[in-house]
Amino acid sequence: MKKFCLNGYNLTAKMLTKISRKKIEVTIDDECWTKIKKCRKMVEAKINKKEPMYGINTGIGEFSEVTLDESQTEEFQNRLVYSHAAGIGEPMSEEIVRGAMCSRINVHCKGFSGGRKEVTEKLLEIINSDVVPHVCEKGSVGACGDLAPMSQIALTMMGEGKAFYKGKMMSAKNALKKAKIKPLRLKARDGLSIINGSNVLTTLSALTLNDAMLWLKTHDLSASMTLEALNANMRPYKSRIHELRGFSGSQKVAKNITKLTKNSEILNSKRKKLQDAYSMRSTPQVAGTLRDSLSYALKQVEIELNGVGDNPIFLTKEKEVLTGANFQGTPVALPMEMVGIGLSMVGILSERRMNRLVNPALSGGLPPFLTEDPGFNSGLMLSQYTADALCVENRILSHPAANQSIPAAADQEDFVSMGLTTAQKTKKILENCWGILAIEMLAAAQAIELRGPEKPSLAIQEVISEIRKDIAHLDEDRPLFDDHNKMVEILKTGKLVRLVEKKSGKLE
Fold first, then answer.
1. What CATH architecture applies to the domain 204-309+324-504?
2. Are residues 446 and 474 in contact, defined by beta-carbon separation less than 8 angstroms?
3. Is 278 marked active-site?
C-alpha cells in the first residue's frame, strides 16, 4: 500500500501502525475538506460577532473567564503553544509522533475542530515528509489531552523548536527548509485545534496493542513447546471444557495449542500425570483472559481514533459551540491498565512453565537446568534469574497510573487521566514480556532436544530448526545474553508465527 485516505471513520490500530512505521502516504477524503471549511466559516462568523468561545477569544484553564480583545486573539494561539510545550526527557520515537499526527488529522476530518484547512494541510505535509517533530517523552497528564507533546508538534509546524530531518536533529526551521515546507502562521483557534486531544497516548496504545496481538500468538507457540517438553496431559485443552464455560479467549488459546501440538509423538505417549500443575493446565484460562481484555482495549482505542476528541466542539448544523471534556484520556487509559496487568500475569505464567523445565524435581526426567553435565555446567539456571527480574519489574509497572490524578491549573483541571503514563508503562511491560517468552522458548527448545527419542509435532520441529539457524543448542556453558537478545529479535519479526501458520493453519 502506497497511500491511505483518511475520512474520520476508517482508522484502525493496524492501519495506524502501518502509517507510523512504514511511512505510508496519508491523504484525506474530499468530503472532509468540505466539512473542515464549513466548520471554519462558522467559527469565523462567531469571532466576528464577538461571541465568547473558550480558547479562541478567552484564556484557557483557570483563565477561561478572561476575555481577549481582537488584537490578542491571533497572538494568543502562539502563546498557547509556547506555554504548553513544557515537556521533559528524551525524544519520543518517530513512530509515536507520526502516529499522533495521523490521529490528529483524522479528528480534523470529522469537521468539528474549527481550525483552518491550512492547519490540516500542514499536518499532512509534514507527516508525508522526512520531518519528524522533536517531542519530549514526559509531561502529559492525559487531559486536556496530550497538551505538552502535541504542542511540540505544533511548534514544528510553526517552524520553531526542534525537529528531525532524515533522522538528524536540528532546528525545526532548518528541517522544514530542507523539506521545502513553509512554516504555518497560526490564527484564531488554530493552536488549540492541534494540541487539544489524547492523540499521543492513543497512538502509543494502538501500537502496543498491535504488537501485543503478535505476542499472544507467540505465547501460544511457546506454551505449546513447553507442554511438549514436559509431556503434558492435554485433556485440559479439549474444546468442550472451554465451550462449557463460554469465554472466547480461553477457547482460542486452547484451539491454538491443540493445533500446534497435533500429531506429537511426545504427547501421544502413555506416560502422563492424571493432573498437571496450574501453570500447565490453566494456560487457556489465564492467557485467554488477556486476549479478551485486549479485544476490549482495542475496541476502545479504535473508537477514540475515530472520535471527536476536541474542546470546544463546533456543530455547524446547529450553529452551536459545545464545551466539554472529549480530550479526557480515561476511556483509553483504563483498558490499557487492564492490558498491562494481563501481560504481567501471562508473563509470570510463562516464567512458571519455564521453571518446571529447569527444575529437576518438576521436569519429569529432564536433566537439571537442561544441561547434560550438571555441576560443571550451570545450563539455563541464570536464564531463569533474568526472567524473574523481568517479572518483578512488570509487577511494579502494573501499579496503576489511571487513578493517580493530581489536580492541575489551580484545580480547574482537577481530575486528569495520566493516560500517557499508562500507555508508556504498558509498552515497557510488553517489552519485558518478549524477554520472558524468549527465555521460555529457548528452554523449551533445549528440553525437547534433550527429551528424545520421541518427537514433538511437525510445526514445533520446524520452529526448533528455525531457531537453531541463529542460536545453537547449549552443549556447554557460554554467555547467554546474546542468545536472549537474539531470541527476542526473532520473536518480534513474527517469522516463527508465520512459519507455524503455514504448517498448521492460521492461529486465532
1. Up-down Bundle (1.20)
2. yes
3. yes
